[in-house]
Amino acid sequence: MMDFFIAKNHNTPVEAPAPEMEMLTLPFPKEDGEHTNGVVETKKKKKPKATPKQPTPEPEIFTGFNYLPMELLLKVMKQISVDDRLACGQTCHRWMEAAHYYLPFSDRIIYRFTNVNFTDYEPPIKSFLGAFRIFPRIAIKACTFYGNSQFWPLFGEHVIELTIKNCLIKDTELLYILEHVPNLRQLKIEQCDELFRSWYFEKRQSCCESHFVLPDLLDVSLTNNDFLDELHFNKLMTLAPNIAHLDLSNCFKMIASHRRVAMVEHIMRFINMHQFQLHTLKFNGTLAIDDICLSTLSMIEGLSLETFSMTFCDKIPAAIIDLLRRQPDLNITQDLEWKVGRHPIKAPGFISFLVRQTNLVHLDLTSSLGITDEVMELITTCLPKLKTLKLRRCILVTDEGIMNIVNLVNLEVLDLSNCYRISDHAMYRGVIGRKVKNLHELYLCELPTLSDYSLIQVTLNYEMLQVLDLSNSPNAATDATMQYVNYYLVSLKQLHLYCCTKLTDSGLTGIDLPVKPMITWDQEETFPLDRLFKLRVLNLIGCYRITDLSLENAFKLAELKELHLARCYQISEKGIAVLSQVATALEFIDLSECPLVNDNCIEMLTANLKRLRTLKVNKCPQLTNACLEIIGRNCSYLKYLHMIDCRRVRKPRERLANHRSLKAVYVEW
């Protein structure tokens, strides 16, 4: 750590003038001497008097935050979020330089173009052509491309990540863009079925020919594309000879089954050809990725994955499950078989794949109906390096299946949502334990069988949690457990309590608790929600017992960015008046279906929340046309306004059509 200080310069003392020296009389005459009584007297030469030096002026000391050393300024900005840093950049030129031009900061900024015409003759692209900065990360969503834009020859050299989602774009325009981004590292083409429907090749061999390649392109995502065929796939893969990460989630749903099978077989051949360089494969929701495909993957010896995701719905035979129960230590041979007696038994593809891929770090099996307790035992035994395990909606997993999750000592992200067969006993014995020390994200949504006991144990063992999701788990999120959360989980950044209907003001504020859960030296203590000073996202949708008391006493959250209060029917003008004063960093607020929200609430929110970007007030019956005038007058950064089914508000789109910052006004579902 470097210390910075300013030293005071004192005035330099004035040097004293040199004393005049008198010449002594000499016994011998000098040429120009005078004789007086035989003694020669010399003339005294007068030296010019030394003029006193002027005191050195004291150097000017610059004070103020705009003169902080750049090293200290960068260190401060590293501790805050991107939105806060961009807001700091508006302070002065020096802070703008630190916020925008420091390379690690600029690399994290994504420039998004949504619902615009991508052409050189219309804004915003017309304005961007004269820009002096670079755009390393670009996301284009729901845009229409008109011809080849000069934006790419000007700025494409610096683009390293490009996302094209749900856009109307031709194949020639896409290839023109890719040709001018030679340093591209990540490419995402999502929901672009119109592109692949209209993309034809004159010759079948032309799909594998290209006069340019992207040697740095490692990550390719083609999710949600139903009409992607072999020729399109070959063309895009030819441009990325060094591909390491491939995402084909939710593809091939709207095509015939034989075409789907042929496409999957083609992908398997591609994986076999690039087995030594692929590290990530994602097939979530992609049909035809079955046990046969997993058998093919397990036979590829050079394939060593770090990230894998799929939806596995095949049923493992009952004989295999019975064999695993009787002999859990049985090893699989090189021929993917179990040697049991005289006749070997062929191992299922999914089990063979898990046994071979021992280096997996991230495993996502969301909505996999084929995951059973025996498979879970293999996962916890064969994959010791796992950091991410997602089992959302794996409904066949029971207490026995998660009993050994505690052995995954490197686990950081765990999702057990919708596994409704899990009970408190399994959570305490199998999930909660001192071996897992680095758990940062825990998702326990829609688990009605969990009680507050499990959540209390979570707070006592995982104090470093940053994300906690208890949505639709009403028996786990109570007033007592909220006191434990407020006290122990001070590192939380996201807290989701969607439809936790047992939660009241007492749990959030600590006021009027019937039983105080914390007792220190015979002193009962309570803790409000604002003890979670790092909290940035708070979801309280459907917690209808919360009133203005919570807003007045528990929401002094300086870093809170996103707040959901929809269907909190008792919130009124009194509580919002305090909220708008203490949570001034809010950028997203949802007050939908709050019947007591009126025009005065909008006035207070828009006047005090200067950084508000999204405001949702759907189905608020007391709002009138006056709130539109308030929004137009106070909101200088508002981008999205949701006013669906506000019956007393007339034509909000037309009235706010000239608002400079507003991008969209939603008045219909």
UniProtKB/TrEMBL annotation:
Disordered: annotated segments: 28-58
Protein name listed in UniProt: F-box domain-containing protein
Origin superkingdom: Eukaryota
Any GO BP: SCF-dependent proteasomal ubiquitin-dependent protein catabolic process
Boundaries of every F-box domain copy: 66-100
Signal peptide: none
Pfam families in the cross-refs: DUF7885 (PF25372), F-box-like (PF12937)
Sequence ranges assigned to domain F-box/LRR-repeat protein 15-like leucin rich repeat in this UniProt record: 532-646
Keywords annotated in UniProt: Ubl conjugation pathway
GO CC terms, sorted: SCF ubiquitin ligase complex
